[in-house]
Amino acid sequence: xxxxxxxDKQSETREIILNKSISEKNDSLAKEIKNNLxxxxxxxxxxxxxxxxGKTTFxxxxxxxxxxxxxxxxxxxxxxDIDKQRLDKQEIYAYQINTHSxxxxxxxxxxxxxxxxxxxxxxxxIIENVGNLVCPAGIKIGQHINIVISSTTEGSDKPKKYPFxxxxxxxxxxxxxxxxxxxxxxxxxxxxxxxxINSNAKIIKISLKDKKTFLKVARFIExxxxxxxTRNHSH
Amino acid sequence: MHELSITKRIIEVIxxxxxxxxxxxxxxxxxxxxxxxxxxxxSILFYFDLLKKNFPIIKRSQIKIKEVKGKILCxxxxxxxxxxxxxxxxxxxxxxxxxxxxxxxxxxxKRIRYK
Lengths: 235, 115
Fold this sequence. Notes:
The structure holds two protein chains of two kinds.
Chain A: E1 14-21, H1 24-39, E2 43-49, H2 55-66, E3 71-77, H3 82-89, E4 93-98, H4 107-116, E5 124-128, E6 145-151, H5 158-161, H6 163-167, E7 171-175, H7 187-197, E8 202-205, H8 215-234
Parallel strand pairs in A: 2-5, 2-6, 3-4, 3-5, 6-7, 7-8
Helix pairs in contact in A: 1-4
Chain B: H1 2-18, E1 26-34, H2 41-51, E2 62-68, E3 71-74, E4 80-82, E5 99-103, E6 107-114
Parallel strand pairs in B: 1-2
Antiparallel strand pairs in B: 1-6, 3-4, 3-5
Helix pairs in contact in B: 1-2
């Protein structure tokens, strides 16, 4: 029976032309987060990388350089608040998101976290995404910049195996660089492979053995925030 | 795992779109998936078949996924070309990697056919 008027005619096949992005809702919320943070003068940094590459360590060291009171952190992990506890000990303001089965953060999670957080006086919001080289790639969460960390111990073939995460990076940090020789990390091939997919990203080598190696990335972050503030004035 | 959540989102969008359309059943959903996304076509087809059984209005529907090749604009020579491999993103004409991605990152629902 026809569902329009109840007559005996067979209902016809109809079509909705949509042309709608599946991530539209996520992306528009991400844009809103990004703009709100920009207006507050807060640079939002999405930190990506495999489990154990040194994401939390990077946040700890950079917070020491940039002054920890200017930083807020959102930690993304499937379970536990181990990383938040590490940051708490250093008096770095941190909020934990547990995604349970979720393999990456999304803008709804960040939006909800920000509702609970107090960002007064903060200049930087660092979001440590779920440790994963596949799923967080290309997912918008309100970030102004992406920092990808990839350690020498993971091997120099990672840009070739997981290109998408490296493609959108503004900065690529090669961590645990003091171990490069021991694990036979091929820096030349690694950089060559990155340049095939990302010609603009800054590539910086870091090592916890020499904290001065983190200065360059800290300066980059400061410059990006200054640029963000300049854009605010021109808006 | 990654495709499970995006397939749930696809189903949400389908249900949202047909809810006020006096729809008896969805027949076909056409999607467009860029090859520079991290989603696997086969996994989406698998999860859709698994999940659709929970929703009477879509339980007999099918999805069709058209894959879209990555396309780039070279900032060096100004020409456009298609990406042959997602891990080799440079201009097919001058080999420059100073490029802008024009297509390949999209994931869209194009059409929904229903009765």
